[in-house]
């Protein structure tokens, strides 16, 4: 999704591959090392509370103890979500925990966590996170020990007690257990461990993180998706209602008034035919002019409705026809020639039509450019002009309705329009691969 127009064009310097590997290894190591003590503490504490609450559930204080165990598990789950966010470099979603009703009694408020599914997932995570954390801790510490111990073996081996017996592993690999062969063997082990260390750390961290994400964030992601769909549906309804109100207002203020006048002129011409043919001819001439003006207004109003050329010949032809009707010169740069889903074509066309209409009415621009390209499973529409700028997406302005229209198809609209111009409008419309 777009966060700003500059985010699409400003290059971000990337660190060297060695620096990226080192930082990734450091983050993975921290996640694995800290994970074990946290898992041990959560397992011990939660297991004691859960057993106490389960065993005494027949008594008054049993269920409150169980609810307390779920609340404590929620705290450990929040700690793990923070650790997951640090591991992946971005915050992870936190599910919503429904609070008790404001008018509920103290019993219902106390037992509210027991009725929530996510609370039990938190408890399940706190009790069994010890398994992946222990595996990750052992793998991480073992590989670090092999790498550091093997590479530093030439420094500290002379301080070890020397046995007369041959080392069977070294002898099996190198043939004899001489000091040189022993150094070569252990340093080689250290080099191999160092080379494979990032992969082992990444795999161990992924194992632990996958378990945590499955229990602690999957429900939150589902809730977030439902919220996005709800927002998109609301945006679609809002955009449709706004478009219908505008169309109704424009028809009432323009073509409807002209049609009323046209009907009156034709009635007057009908009455004048017998007694004053010259006046009737003049009235009919004015009526023809009214008809042309009405047709021009209807064509202008229809710019937000998909024209037949869009359905018959596709987006490129429709935008070319739209640009040819513009009162200012429009340069087209369209690299998408194949047909797109109808909802994508309609949305892109509508946004382009409205944007060019705003350019013609409000920007004072002398030229405009429309660019359409496909990138990363989305269609990007860029409308640029050399006008006075000052456009924004605030509610109550025309571009806010465009943003709702784009958001209705899970897209996003961004505008960069400083005072003095130029203005750049970017619409991102998902279209699949």
Q: Could you describe the 3D structure shown?
A:
- The protein is of the alpha+beta class and 433 residues long.
- The chain folds into 3 domains: 16-216, no CATH class; 254-301; 308-430, 2-Layer Sandwich (Heat Shock Protein 90), CATH 3.30.565.
- 67% of the residues lie in helices and 8% in strands.
- The protein contains 16 helices and 5 strands.
- The protein has helices spanning 6-9, 17-55, 62-88, 106-110, 117-128, 130-151, 153-156, 168-174, 179-216, 218-253, 255-275, 277-301, 308-313, 315-324, 342-363, 398-407; strands spanning 330-334, 368-375, 378-385, 412-416, 423-430.
- The chain has a 5-stranded mixed β-sheet.
- The longest helix has 39 residues, at 17-55.
- The protein is elongated and about 130 Å long.
């Amino acid at each position: 999704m777009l966060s700003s127009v500059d985010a699409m064009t400003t290059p971000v310097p990337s660190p060297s591959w060695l620096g990226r590997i080192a930082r990734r290894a450091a983050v993975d190591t921290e996640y694995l090392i800290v994970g074990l003590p946290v898992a041990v503490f959560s397992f011990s504490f939660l297991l004691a509370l859960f057993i106490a609450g389960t065993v005494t559930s027949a008594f008054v204080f049993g269920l409150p103890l169980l609810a307390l165990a779920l609340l404590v598990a929620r705290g450990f789950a929040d700690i793990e979500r923070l650790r997951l966010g640090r591991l992946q470099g971005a915050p992870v979603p936190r599910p919503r925990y429904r609070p008790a009703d404001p008018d509920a009694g103290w019993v219902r408020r106390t037992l509210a966590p027991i009725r929530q599914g996510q609370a039990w997932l938190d408890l399940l995570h706190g009790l069994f996170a010890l398994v992946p954390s222990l595996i990750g801790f052992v793998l991480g510490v073992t590989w670090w020990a092999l790498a550091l111990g093997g590479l530093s073996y030439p420094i500290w081996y002379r301080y070890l007690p020397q046995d007369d017996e041959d080392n069977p592993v070294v002898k099996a690999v190198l043939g004899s257990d001489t000091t040189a062969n022993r150094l070569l063997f252990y340093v080689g082990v250290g080099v191999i461990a160092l080379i494979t260390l990032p992969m082992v750390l990444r795999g161990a961290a992924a194992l632990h993180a996958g378990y945590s994400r499955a229990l602690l964030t999957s429900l939150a992601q589902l809730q977030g998706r439902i919220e996005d769909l709800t927002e998109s549906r609301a945006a679609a309804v809002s955009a449709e209602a706004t478009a219908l109100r505008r169309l109704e207002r424009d028809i009432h203020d323009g073509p409807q008034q002209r049609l009323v006048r046209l009907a009156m002129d034709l009635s007057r011409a009908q009455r004048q035919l017998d007694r004053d043919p010259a006046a009737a001819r003049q009235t009919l001439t004015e009526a023809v002019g009214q008809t042309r003006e009405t047709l021009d207004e209807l064509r202008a109003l229809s710019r937000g409705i998909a024209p037949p050329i869009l359905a018959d010949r596709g987006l490129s032809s429709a935008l070319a026809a739209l640009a040819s009707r513009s009162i200012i010169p429009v340069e087209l740069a369209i690299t998408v020639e194949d047909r797109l889903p109808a909802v994508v074509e309609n949305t892109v066309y509508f946004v382009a039509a409205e944007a060019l209409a705003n350019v013609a009415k409000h920007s004072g621009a002398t030229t405009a450019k429309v660019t359409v390209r496909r990138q990363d499973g989305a269609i990007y529409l860029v409308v640029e002009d050399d006008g006075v700028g000052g456009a924004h997406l605030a509610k109550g302005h025309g571009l806010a309705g465009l943003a709702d229209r784009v958001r209705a198809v899970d897209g996003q609209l961004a505008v960069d329009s400083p005072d003095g111009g130029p203005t750049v409008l970017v619409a991102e419309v998902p279209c699949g691969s």
